[in-house]
Design goal:
Layout (H helix, E strand, L loop, with lengths): L1 H12 L3 H14 L4 H14 L2 H14 L4 H13 L3 H14 L4 H14 L8 H8 L18 H7 L7 H10 L2
Length: 176
């Protein structure tokens, strides 16, 4: 039962998503009540760009373990990538209620707020940038948004000057 989960995780980390998905689906078949199976499947599907599948996997994981900050963050990320920043923001807010100093959820919430045009101060750097440039529905650099699985790399990205520093600091207060 756990062997399939660990094989799926190993294949995901080794860059073989097809094998990872096969093993993780078998792990879910053997033990559908273990949230880790669904989370790993969500991470694998998200890595392949199948955000609809990742959303379903994360939603199932949250049914089993509703107080998981990382799962709320990952679901928010998948929703944001699918073009639902309002829904994503709700999950980032849930992650921050569970774990108030969670840097990944703070960064992702700030990116969603920026995308929605909801900065705290109208004269902020992000607000000025929005007035001068047309924005696509997604951030220019998705590497600035991170999932829990990318935490070591994502942590270093928090210093990236292209991420709006003001928005990140204020995201906790601004998240509904």
């Amino acid at each position: 039962m756990l062997a399939e989960y660990y094989l799926g995780t190993a294949f995901r980390l080794a860059g073989n998503p097809e094998e990872a998905i096969r093993h993780l689906r078998e792990a879910i078949r053997l033990n559908p009540r273990f949230p880790g199976n669904h989370i790993e499947l969500g991470l694998t599907l998200s890595g392949r760009g199948d955000f609809d599948g990742a959303i379903r996997a994360y939603e199932r994981a949250l049914q089993l373990e509703p107080e998981s900050a990382s799962t709320h963050n990952n679901l928010g990320y998948a929703l944001f990538r699918r073009g639902f920043p309002e829904r994503a923001l709700k999950h980032y807010a849930a992650a921050l209620r569970i774990k108030p100093r969670y840097p990944l959820a703070r960064t992702n919430a700030a990116m969603a707020l920026d995308q929605l045009g909801r900065t705290r101060r109208p004269g902020s750097t992000c607000a000025r940038r929005r007035k001068t440039k047309k924005r696509s529905p997604e951030p220019r650099n998705h590497s600035q948004m991170v999932t829990h699985a990318e935490m070591p790399r994502g942590w270093r990205r928090l210093d990236n000057p292209s991420v709006c520093q003001e928005n990140r600091r204020m995201s906790v207060a601004a998240v509904p």
